[in-house]
Each structure stands twice: as C-alpha cells, then as structure tokens.
Amino acid sequence: MILVTSSCEEKNPLNQKTKKLETGTMTDCDGNVYRTVKIGDQWWMAENLRVTRYRNGDTIPNITGNNQWKGLTTGGLCYYNNDSNYAEEFGALYNWYAVTSDKKLAPDGWHVPGDEEWKQLERTLGMSETDVEASGLRGAGEGGKVKSAGFGYWASPNTGATNSSGFSARAAGYRNFNDGAFYLIGQAAIIWSATELNSDYAWYRELSCTNANINRYIFYNKRSGLSVRLVMD
33, 97, 110, 232: most buried, per Cβ within 10 A? Predict the structure, then answer.
C-alpha cells in the first residue's frame, strides 16, 4: 500500500464556495493507482475498486456466465455487461464472498468498510443521528455530497450532486443474484459494507440519480455483484 497526500479545492456548485480537500493515492495488489480523499477522520478511496487479485496473490475468478454467477457462494468478480472496458471508470463488481474473503480483497493498510464506518462517514457529511441509525432511504441531501457532479457518470437529473466531500461516487450499477443480468448503470451506485445481516444478506449503501439521500438496506443478496470502496485502517 502506498499513500501520497496532497490538497486541492472542491467547488460546490450550489453555493460557489470552495473547500480544501486532503487527497492522495493508493495502490492495489495489481498495481492500479487510485485517488483517495480524507473525509472527517477517515481516508476513503475516491474511485471504485477494480483489483483482480487478493492480497495473498490469488486470482479472484472473473465469472461471465449467468448461471455460474447466480449460484456462486465463493469469491468472484465481474465487469458490467462482462465488458472490462468499464473497469477504468466504474471499477469491477464483486460478490460479498470476495469482499469478506480471508485472502483479503484490500491491500495492506486498507479494508472494506463495515456498516459502522459507513455511519461515521454519514455523520461527517451532516446526517442526523436518527437517520444514521435508520434503514432505507435516509438523510437530507448527504448523498449529493458524495455523488460525482454532472452527467459523466450519472444519468439525468443526478439530483443534488455536488461531490463537495470528494468521494466521487459513480453509478456503476449492479449484477443481479437471481438471473446474473446487469442493471442500473448510470442510475445507481450500490456499494458493499463488510457487515452481514444474516446468512443471505449484508448491509450496503445505495445512491440514486433521482434523489440526494443515502439508502442503507439489505435488498441485494450476498451473491449480487456490487461496487467496493475501501477505507484506510
């Protein structure tokens, strides 16, 4: 793991004020270099993960067949529509078994955030404690603070998107656990947490192009393919 820090200014188009962000870079086990940003007391990736190997060097299987994907209960990844050209801008999609593998998806010094670490981020963004502890769609515009602004990575209307936090969420869509099909690119960013609810479901966070809040829920089975962001240890 390599972290290089710097600072920059992020413009909020709603009030035209600028805010200094502390930024850096992180390198994964494949040598991919990612932007990072400090939000409150946490360092987060500012891009979606696209690593193809675990920390121990083992390859994460790239599963293209729909039937194989929907029946998988070990770690796997894929790219939207099985097209690796999506990787650079949207990252890979991982099932929850890859996210929590003992082989470690993250490089040394980083990890997949648990539900409580997502809550810490939401508090930093200004979400009320009542909303932080709730499930479903919550908040008062905090999702807009983490969505990339404009329409490069989001469909219209990309409601409330300012990216004032520098988190730069992108709408990478997901792979369904029932049929192995791909959905919602441009419309939703759905990102795993490492915290399970039960044997079939785990908590995640979802952002939508049509609202500026943050969904905390467990709709997507562990066999789903969702995006991953890492947080520093």
Answer: 110
Q: Coil, helix or strand for 44?
A: strand
CA atoms within 13 A on the CB side of 119: 15
List b or e across 73-90, with b for residues whose CB sees 16 or more CB atoms inside 10 angstroms: eebbbbbbebeeebbeeb
Alpha helices per DSSP H over the chain: 66-70, 87-90, 96-99, 115-125, 129-132
Each residue of 88-144: pLDDT tens digit? 999 999 999 999 999 999 999 999 999 999 999 999 999 999 999 999 999 999 999
Measured CA to CA in angstroms, residue 13 lies from 90, 122, 146, 159, 168 at distances of 23, 21, 13, 13, 14
Residue linked to tokens 């502890």: 133
Residues 6+ apart with CB under 8 A from 227: 48, 49, 90, 91, 93, 94, 170, 172, 174, 189, 190, 191, 192
Tell me how many domains the chain contains: 1
CA distance 69 to 207: 24
pLDDT one-digit tens code per residue, 23-55: 999 999 999 999 999 999 999 999 999 999 999
Q: Alpha-carbon distance 174 to 198, whole Å?
A: 21
Range of the domain at 150: 4-232
What's this model's pTM, rounded to 2 decimal places?
Answer: 0.91
CA 159 to chain CA centroid, Å, is 18
Residue in the structure block whose two tokens are 């929850």: 96
